[in-house]
Structure formats: structure tokens, C-alpha cells
Design a protein that fits this description.
4-stranded antiparallel sheet, elongated, alpha+beta, single chain, 5-stranded mixed sheet, about 325 residues, about 20% strand
Length: about 325
Amino acid sequence: MTVVRRWVLTAVPFGIATAAYVGVFLASYDRLPGRIATHFSGDGRADGFMSRPAALWFGGGLLVGLGLLFTVLTLVSKESPGSRLTTAVGAGTAVTLGYPLVFTVLVNTEAHDPAEAHLPIWHVAVLLLAGAATGAVAWWLMSAGPRPAPTPPAPSLALADGEVAAWSRTVVSHALLFPAGAVTLGGLFAVAFGPWQAGLPPLVLGLACAPFACVRVTVDRRGLTVASTVLPRPRLALPLGSIVSAAGVQVDAMGDFGGWGYRIRPKRRGVVLRSGESLSVRTVGGREYVVTVDDSTTAAALLNGLVNRHAGERA
């Protein structure tokens, strides 16, 4: 039932927006000028134009494409705050896009010159409020559902006084590495063969993201450290004194965190490079940190042992 609800709350708003836009456009087609105003400046005056067929296909294709994207995202994600947020954003986006597209057709109807079309700026406030309200309703209709029970801590690895132990693993995210590489290559191609100004932003973005597609996770006497294998900063460091317990858990990147990378959720943070086995660390402040890494049970047991020894030394 939850899957059906997510599908309805995401697909139906986009379906209504697409039907409204295409229906109004076709009903007004013969009364529209050959070129219609599709973009308006801050004072509401038309400053961008498209042919009638191009405007029809562009608006309809945009709504259908985004509708499919959000619907797939909500269907592949399991019940979680992440999937709930995706559903709410999708429903709000359908209204935020559908509203101006429909009104663009209306202000062009019966216009002899598309430059005479005028779309008052107050419509921006209306579409934003309508989108936010629709998203809030979708969020409410999804309901939060029962919170999952906390994962019990992993067994503690007993360590003698003065005994030294450390654990380290490297994690590579193909979901981040391949797109970062493609963006970097696209930027290099544009810099080499086109206007370098156009290639510079994707080149910088790709080079900035690529180092964080591969991280090293370390558990030792300092606590937990997660850092890029290429750059020393930024990094996630949790000292032993701030850690309460650790455990090995299973994580769904999209369902639990809404994607990949460094993710932020209420009372939860995640270095999520893939789905699957992960190390979960709970801190004194009640926050949970999740790091996707293999052999997480061993890491959690060692971390629990180090935390217990540290607490005993302080006592």
C-alpha cells in the first residue's frame, strides 16, 4: 500500500500538470501566434520566444520526463524519510512547473504579437506557495511510519592495557566516480575545443568531486576517521570520547539517505558511497553516523573495545 501511495502522490500531480498544459495548449492552438512568448523578465515583459510546436513539445516533454524521474526514484526507494522527501519534492515540482507553463499559454492566447504578452511577477509567489503547499500535503499523506528499532551494538573486542590495534579499509564509489570522470572529461573537451568559459565549471566540479569517490575508513586509538585517499581535508573525525557505541548495519543509499555522498538527515549523518554493509556509530549527543564499508562488524567490535578502554582509563 505504501508503494502505491508513493506512486500516486508522485505520478498523479505530474499527470494532471501534463494533461492541463497539453489540453490548454491544444484548445488554444489556433488562437496562438506562430511564435509564443515562453520567458519573461522581472517586470513581466516577454523576452524569450519559441515556435508553437517547439513550446508544446518542450513543456510536455519536461513534465513527462521529470514525472518519470521522480516516480522511479520514489519506487526504488524503500519506506524512509528519504523516500518521503522525494515524494514531497516531486509533487511540489509538478505544481511549480505546471502552473507557469499553463499560464504562459493563456497570456499568449489571442496575442497578435508575442512581445505584447505579459506575465505579472506576482505569479512567481503564487507558484512557489502552491508548490510548497502541494509538497507539504504529499509529505503529510505519506506519514512518517514507525521508526526502525535501533541496531544493537556489535560485540566489544577486548583490549589489554597498552595493546595497540587498528583497522582500515578503502571504499570506492562507482556511482560517484564515473559521473565525476565524465563531467571532468566533458569540461576538458570544452576547454580544448570550445569556449573555455563553458568548460571551466564542469571541469572544476568534476575535479572537486572525483577525490571523494574513494575514501579510507580508519579505526584506531584516535577513534573513527573517514578521509579521501587523495586529499587530507575535509574529513570526518569522531574521537573516542564522543562515541557511545558502534554496530554493523545494512544501508539502502537511496531509501535511507536519498542518494550518495555526504548525506544529512535529522539526527543522522552518512558517508554513503554505495548500498550494503555499513558501520554505524552513535555519539554522546544522540546522533548516528553511518559509513558504507566492508567488514563493518570487525570495525564496530574494535571501536567498541577502544571506547570501553578509553572510558575505563578516564574513570
